[in-house]
């Protein structure tokens, strides 16, 4: 597993999904890049498409698109046309990302868009759930030899297997697989985060979570469940018109979520059970030591009633009690005094 296929230092790659929340305006897109960078995201992602090549003239909008971007008689193509950015605008967004220090990613939806993004110098390609079964397109992307991230919303395991095989046959670039539920928003009870384990076991690739649930609770849970990549929609303002704003995080929410992801990531640790440095001081006062349960005169052979376990924990551990019993006191020992080997004779 290489850092080029996931995140630097092999941590969680957080992709702030701007998508089409720029509403077709380049300056809004640039503002979204700034928000993502300030929030601490590793990458900001957009969508690159030609509406005429993506949808037929009569293609209907999804229910959530109708609900969030109502327009009488508007087709999916009409809606998408208003959300395009030009080649020059994408170059400007890419340049701005380089300037502020955040990775630029955009999901291509056709081969021309993929070729453009490759020429633009993207480090990796992200494939939408809708194109998981578009195997010719997946192979076109694979031939660039760059890392690919595929989303698997709406898919069966067999369909994911077909996609993985197609990518492997076309060059086998580094591949990561995102579990996803393609509802906007998706309910928490639909998340099925354990599916990430299924994907990891089936394909031996890094897995992650493309999150369409509201808020950040399920995102945090996905990190604990093993997500190596997180993708989450965000916007400048959830009340803006457009299909994806309503299910997106606002800037302060994105910042809080990324901080939470980093906290969970750090909390997972390395799995080795050992005390922290800070716990060593706690152990000194919270654990017990063997002490004299009553005054013991020199020469007295210690019995069960002469020894107790009390705080602090800086003396002989209670597990040594069997070794202490039966020994003679080498000197007078006062009640409550911590026992040591020096004060005990064989």
TrEMBL record:
Its EC number is 2.5.1.56. GO terms for molecular function: N-acetylneuraminate synthase activity. Coiled coil: none annotated. It comes from the Bacteria. Residues 301-328 are annotated as: Disordered. InterPro entries: AFP_Neu5c_C_sf, Aldolase_TIM, NeuB/NeuA, PseI-like, PseI/NeuA/B-like_N, SAF, SAF_AFP_Neu5Ac, SAF_PseI/NeuA/NeuB. It is an enzyme of class 2 (transferase). Gene3D superfamilies: Aldolase class I, Antifreeze-like/N-acetylneuraminic acid synthase C-terminal domain. Keywords: Transferase. SMART domains: SAF. Residues 289-346 form the AFP-like domain. This is N-acetylneuraminate synthase.
């Amino acid at each position: 597993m290489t850092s080029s296929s996931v995140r630097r230092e092999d941590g969680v790659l957080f992709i702030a999904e701007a998508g089409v929340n720029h509403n077709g305006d380049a300056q809004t897109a640039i503002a979204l890049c700034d928000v993502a960078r300030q929030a601490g995201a590793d990458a900001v992602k957009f969508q690159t498409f030609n509406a005429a090549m993506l949808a037929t003239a009569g293609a209907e909008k999804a229910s959530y698109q109708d609900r969030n971007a109502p327009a009488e008689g508007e087709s999916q193509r009409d809606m998408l046309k208003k959300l395009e950015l030009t080649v020059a605008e994408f170059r400007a967004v890419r340049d701005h990302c380089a300037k502020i220090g955040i990775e630029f990613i955009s999901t291509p939806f056709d081969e021309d868009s993929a070729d453009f993004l490759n020429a633009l110098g993207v480090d990796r390609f992200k494939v939408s759930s809708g194109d998981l079964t578009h195997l010719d397109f997946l192979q076109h992307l694979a031939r660039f030899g760059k890392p690919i991230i595929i989303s698997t919303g709406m898919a069966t395991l067999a369909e994911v297997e077909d996609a993985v095989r197609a990518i492997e046959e076309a060059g086998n670039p580094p591949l990561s697989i995102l579990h996803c539920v393609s509802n906007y928003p998706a309910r928490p009870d639909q998340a099925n985060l354990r599916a990430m384990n299924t994907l990891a076991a089936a394909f031996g690739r890094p897995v992650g979570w493309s999150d369409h649930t509201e808020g950040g609770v399920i995102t945090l849970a996905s990190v604990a469940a093993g997500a190596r990549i997180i993708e989450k929609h965000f916007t400048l303002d959830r009340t803006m018109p457009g299909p994806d704003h309503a299910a997106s995080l606002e800037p302060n929410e994105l910042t809080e979520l990324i901080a939470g992801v980093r906290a969970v990531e750090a909390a997972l640790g390395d799995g080795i059970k050992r005390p922290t440095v800070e716990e060593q001081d706690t152990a000194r006062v919270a654990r017990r030591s063997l002490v004299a349960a009553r005054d013991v005169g020199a020469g007295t052979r210690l019995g069960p009633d002469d020894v107790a376990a009390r705080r602090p924990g800086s003396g002989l551990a209670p597990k040594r009690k069997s070794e202490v019993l039966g020994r003679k006191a080498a000197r007078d020992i006062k009640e409550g005094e911590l026992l040591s080997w020096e004060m005990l004779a064989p």
